[in-house]
Amino acid sequence: MVGGLALLDMLSPATLGVTVYLLLTEKERLSSRLMIYLVTVAAFYFSVGVASILGLDALLATFSSIFQNRIVSWVMLIIGGVLFIASFYYPKSKKTDLPRPKSKSKTAMIALGFTTSLIEVGIAFPYFAAIGLMTTSNLEVFQWLPIIVGYNFIMVLPPLILFTLHLLFGRVMQRPLVRLQTRLSKHSGSAVSWVMCIVGLILVFNSLDYL
């Protein structure tokens, strides 16, 4: 289930948008600047994930196991229901301007990575759903730490694939990248709505066994 949530998080419009923009416009030092940006995004989400699991684990440890499971399950049920219902009202045709770096220095790439991560972490429903599942499963550190690492790698895998295709095919990728940039800007609202719906259903069904 966590793997499925990781696949949903591959649809990040901001991260993909910045990657496509760099591939289309950056002529020098593309590899280093794109890698700095993606490592910053992955490191940010990794830190948030570790901090969330440790914090949630410490908080939930104050309750008895039975009371803990019921409280967590009800919270997950309510959040899942709200996400599922809200997904039908999210503006699916909403067109957004994807983030674009004003400067392409290494410092600017780090700042852009933090900025886009901060923007998207508030709607990173699959990530926090996965964290909730791992917390309620009472996994040990040696179990959930590799999962968090793998999850974050999967999150940045689409930009890495685009970068690899760009290296292999060069100018042939220009037209597909332009079309992808247009579609990301036009349909980012639909992607968010779809993710909200699926994550809501996962949270609802996962909570039913413990109510």
Fold and architecture overview:
With 211 residues, the protein is mostly helical. It has one domain. Helices cover 78% and strands 0% of the residues. It is built from nine helices and no strands. α1 runs antiparallel to α6, α2 runs parallel beside α8 (157-169) and α6 packs parallel to α9 (174-207). The chain is globular, with a radius of gyration of 19 Å. The two termini are 20 Å apart. The mean pLDDT is 76.
Summary, kept brief:
This is GAP family protein. Keywords: Membrane, Transmembrane, Transmembrane helix. By secondary structure, this protein is an all-alpha fold.
> Beta-strand level of the residues, as a percent range?
under 5%
Largest sheet: none
Number of helices: 9
Distance between the termini: 20 Å
Please count the beta strands (DSSP E, at least 2 residues each). Answer: 0
Specify the helix fraction band.
over 70%
Q: Low-confidence parts, pLDDT < 50 over ≥5 residues? A: none
Radius of gyration: 19 Å
| Element string (H = helix, E = strand) | HHHHHHHHH
Decide which structural class fits the backbone: mainly alpha
Number of domains: 1
Outline: globular
Instruction: State mean pLDDT (0 to 100 scale).
Output: 76
List the helices and strands and how they pair.
Layout: H1 2-8, H2 13-25, H3 30-60, H4 65-87, H5 106-121, H6 125-136, H7 141-155, H8 157-169, H9 174-207
Helix pairs in contact: 1-6, 1-7, 2-3, 2-8, 2-9, 3-5, 3-6, 3-7, 4-9, 6-9
